[in-house]
Amino acid sequence: MTSRATPPPRAPRTPAVLFDLDGTLVDSEPHYYEAGRLTLERYGVTGFTWERHLRFLGIGTRETLEILRREHGIDAPVDELVAVKNRHYLELVRTSAKAFPGMREFAERLLAAGHPVAVASGSSRAAIDAVLEATGLGPLLTVRVSAEEVGRGKPEPDVFLEAARRLGVAPADCVVVEDAAPGVEAARRAGMRCIAVPYAPEGGAPGGVPDGVPGGTAPFASAGLLFAGGQREFDAEAAYAWAASGN
Prior knowledge:
The chain is an alpha/beta fold.
C-alpha cells in the first residue's frame, strides 16, 4: 500500500497594505491647494479656489497641472510648473504636515502583525519622502512608489501594481487604502481589495460633497470597506480586522 504524505496546511495569507498618501495618511490637501494657488498666481492666474482644487483629489501632480495649463493657456512647460509647485509644497509640509492619528495607529498595527506595507502616491518622490519624514512615518513606510516612476497615474492601476511588485506579493493579496475616487478605481483595476476613507475638509463632508447631497459616496461603491464619514469615522481596529480577514 502506497502512503501519501499529507501536505502541510497552507499558512494564512498576510495581505500587504498599500497606502495612498495625501488625504489618506496625511492631511496634506490644504498644503497642495496653497502650493497650487501660489503656482498659478506666479503665471498670472488668480482666483483659484478650494472648491476648484477639490476637482483634482486623487489625481497626480503632473496630470493636475497638465489640465490647469490647458485650461488657463499657460505657456510654461509642465515640467517647470511641477518644479514650482513642488518647491512651494515642500516648504509648507516640512513645517506643518500632520499624520491622521487613526492611520498612524493602523500602520503600526499592520507592521506589528507582520504585514508588508507601502506608500503608492500620485505625488513626486521628493514630496513623498518629505511628508513621511516630517510626520514621523518614515521609519514605518520604507517602500514608496511615486506616479512619476510608472507609466500612468491613477485611476490607472500602475502605481499599485508597482508597489505590489516591490513588496513581492500578488495583486490579489493587496489591500489599498484610499481617500479619493480615482484611487479606488485604480485599486479595482489592479484587482486589489480597497478600504475607502473619503477625504473630508475640516468641518465638511467627505470629498467636498455637501452634507445631505445624494450620491456623495457613489464614487466609492467598489470599495470593500467604506468609512463614509472619512477620518472622523475611521476605526483602525475595524480596518485591520477587515484587511487581515481576506474577505
